[in-house]
UniProtKB/TrEMBL annotation:
Organism: Dactylosporangium salmoneum
Transmembrane segments: none
SUPFAM superfamilies in the cross-refs: Winged helix' DNA-binding domain
Lineage per the UniProt record: Bacteria, Bacillati, Actinomycetota, Actinomycetes, Micromonosporales
Name by which UniProt lists this protein: PadR family transcriptional regulator
Residue ranges of every copy of the Transcription regulator PadR N-terminal domain listed in the record: 11-82
Length: 183
């Protein structure tokens, strides 16, 4: 699936929850989907304009995307279902931390330890964020049809953060062992 199709899916998906302005859509993608999906803000407004031209969303209010409210049309809902039904494309991983650790001999044990400790702290922050999101979803009865699916993504975020913490603890212990054995 092309990047533009995935942007289209994110925009239509967010608007399927509720109509919103371009600005609110941008914020929702960052704040709500952001724990598992990122989208270039520079793609959101052109995508809204394209979806409107194709009759997949309808604009009400002002002429500017930022101040107009967008809603998914029936054709837009059909397009979203099509996009959601397409096979998921694997994306080659690009993990800067793993690249640095792989060449850790050149970086040094102390620098590797700092990178891993920072990663652990970030995972703890993400875990707290997942707890906050779970509480927020539980407190929004107007989204009860979506909430079970949202909880699945929150659970995945929790598991990912917990795994990162466990990996960091194991890795920090391994670095400590390397320090002890090199003395």
């Amino acid at each position: 699936m092309a990047r533009s199709s995935q942007t289209e899916m994110a925009v239509l998906g967010a608007l399927s929850v509720e109509p919103m302005t371009g600005y609110a859509l941008r914020e929702a993608i960052r704040d709500v989907l952001g724990h598992f999906w990122s989208e270039s803000f520079g793609q959101i407004y052109p995508t809204l304009n394209d979806l409107e031209a194709r009759g997949l969303v309808v604009r009400t209010g002002g002429a500017r995307a930022r101040s107009s409210t967008f809603a998914v049309t029936p054709d837009g809902a059909r397009r979203l279902r099509e996009l959601l039904s397409e096979p998921i494309q694997a994306v080659p991983p690009r993990n800067g931390l793993m690249l640095r650790l792989f060449f850790g001999r050149m970086l040094g044990v102390d620098a590797c330890r700092e990178l891993i400790a920072a990663t652990r702290a970030d995972a703890e922050r993400r875990l707290r964020e997942m707890d906050r999101l779970a509480a927020e979803v539980a407190g929004e009865p107007q989204y009860s049809d979506d909430a079970p699916f949202w909880r699945l993504t929150i659970s995945a975020g929790r598991h990912t953060a917990e795994a990162a913490i466990a990996w960091a603890d194991e890795s920090l212990a391994a670095l400590d062992d390397m320090d002890r054995s090199s003395r």
